[in-house]
Specification:
By secondary structure, the chain is of the alpha+beta class. The chain has three domains: about 1-160; about 220-300; about 305-465, Histidine kinase-like ATPase, C-terminal domain (Heat Shock Protein 90), CATH 3.30.565. The chain contains nine helices and 16 strands. It has helices at about 5-55, 155-210, 225-270, 275-300, 315-325, 330, 350-365, 395, 415-430, and strands at about 55-60, 65, 80-90, 90-95, 115-125, 130-140, 145-155, 305, 310, 335-340, 345, 370-375, 380-385, 430-435, 440-450, 460. The protein has a five-stranded antiparallel beta sheet. Helix 1 (about 5-55) packs antiparallel against helix 2 and helix 4 (about 275-300) runs parallel beside helix 9. It is rod-shaped and about 165 Å long.
């Protein structure tokens, strides 16, 4: 799932970057602190070493000693971690601090120039690792020169303890930095993805009919995508225009042959061939209705671009009821219509008439004495169309709307009415439901989208969901 989320990828990359950066910063700061402390300790050891050199003296009898003990009390505490040692010619450990106890530090073989100080890491008492500073001094005694090696060392555990204390003190600050970087990353991701979210909202506005194109107020990096989308919308409009022109040409081209077929049926009737004429007229009527319905289906399935797609529900129902009440079947029925005026739905008027016409025609076909129509100005708009006919068995209701389904072969029709109605509703995001009517027959519930709140251009692209 993560590989499909750009936000998750950015968060993972940011988490890895922050973690790596803080780790490098922590290690770097600890290393710098350790080196700084080691330099400071080295400077103190050099001072201790110079003090020790100043205290070395040679007695008249040639014995080497100290005028006094070094001032640091740790030199007198056994295994305190701070030690000094003086090696004489061929006599390692000639003099040692009490802190060394009975241990002697083995100095490395080293070519020490007079006055020079060398640094070493050596083993001390009890397995201690010592940071050592060493120098050589020369003393005159009884006409001969004595070369002495002086060493001052300190246990590295003090350096480690100082480093660990610094790390403990530094950790809360690193956590605060991590928190600040996380907040900054959140703001950066939000700001970086905001244009994509704006594109999504723009496409949603286009899809819902509140806009016609994506605007131009996007960052330069997003504008190529915006341009491609707008180009795609333009090409789609052109393709739809060509499709509409093709369907119009098809309808016009079929009108003449169907008219000729009706005229031939009339001539046959005049020649006394009534049954054949009736068959031809029925065939022409069936072909005309099928062509009309296929054109509607082609239009709503391919998508239709209109300006301010809206239709008055009450007006469409009243118009259809007036038409159907003049037909032989509709004239014998009572029509009970409850439709508040002014209810607008986001459908093309022709598509609304085709949708309600199929449903009302179906109710007229099955009703015995009454057809009831009710409209609710809710969101979405709800329309109930009920008849007092025989109804549909509960086991068959869920099959209504299937293409070509006819539950009673005794009725005229080809079973396409409900399927076409469902196609139109699917194109506009509406819903179609069936239930038993309170007046005894079948009730059809239609849910239609209301007209959206205008935002900029109200051009709409109707497309299947």
């Amino acid at each position: 799932m993560t590989r499909h989320s750009l936000r998750a990828r950015l968060w993972i990359a940011a988490a890895l970057s922050i973690s790596f950066t803080l780790m490098v910063a922590g290690v770097g700061l600890l290393t710098l602190f350790e080196r700084h402390v080691e330099r400071r300790i080295g400077a103190e050891l050099r001072a201790q070493l110079n003090q020790l050199a100043a205290l070395v003296s040679v007695a008249p009898d040639g014995r080497i000693g100290l005028e006094r003990d070094p001032a640091d009390p740790r030199f007198d505490q056994p295994l305190s971690g701070l030690y000094w040692q003086i090696d004489g010619p061929d006599r390692p450990g000639l003099l040692r601090s009490r802190s060394l106890w009975d241990h002697m530090v083995e100095l490395r073989v080293d070519d020490l120039e007079p006055g020079g100080v060398h640094a070493h890491d050596l083993m001390g008492p009890g397995g201690q690792r010592l940071l050592v500073r060493e120098r050589q001094i020369r003393l005159e005694s009884a006409g001969r020169t004595l070369a002495l090696r002086l060493m001052v060392g300190i246990d590295r555990v003090e350096l480690i303890q100082a480093r660990n204390a610094f790390a403990a003190d530094m950790l809360p600050y690193l956590l605060v930095i991590a928190l600040v970087l996380t907040i900054a990353t959140f703001l950066q991701i939000q700001a970086g993805l905001a244009p994509l979210d704006a594109v999504r909202r723009g496409l949603s506005a286009i899809r819902s009919g509140r806009a016609a194109r994506l605007g131009e107020l996007y960052p330069d990096e997003v504008m190529p995508l915006v341009g491609e989308v707008n180009t795609l919308l333009t090409e789609r409009e052109q393709a739809l225009e060509r499709a509409r022109a093709w369907t119009a040409d098809l309808a016009h081209g079929l009108k003449t042959p169907l008219g000729v077929l009706v005229a031939d049926a009339q001539r046959l009737r005049e020649q006394g061939q009534g049954p054949l004429a009736e068959d031809l007229e029925q065939l022409a009527t069936t072909m005309r209705r099928r062509v009309e319905r296929e054109l509607v289906r082609a239009r709503v399935r391919s998508g239709t671009r209109v300006h301010q797609a809206r239709a008055d529900v009450s007006e469409a129902i009243q118009r259809l009821v007036r038409t159907l009440s003049r037909t032989p079947r509709g004239a014998r029925l009572a029509w009970r219509v409850t439709a508040p005026p002014g209810i607008k739905t986001a459908l093309i008027a022709d598509d609304l008439l085709e949708l309600l016409g199929n449903l009302l025609e179906n109710a007229t076909q099955w009703a015995r004495t009454l057809v009831e129509v009710r409209v609710s100005a809710s969101e979405p708009i709800a329309i109930w169309i009920a008849d007092d006919g025989p109804g549909v068995a509960a086991a068959q209701i869920h099959r209504l709307g299937e293409r070509g389904l006819r539950l009673d072969e005794r009725c005229e029709g080809n079973g396409l009415g409900l399927a076409i109605a469902r196609d139109i509703l699917d194109a506009y995001g509406g819903r179609l439901g069936f239930e038993s009517a309170t007046i005894g027959g079948l009730a059809v519930r239609v849910e239609l989208p209301a007209v959206p709140t205008p935002e900029g251009s109200a051009e709409r692209i109707v497309q299947p969901h």
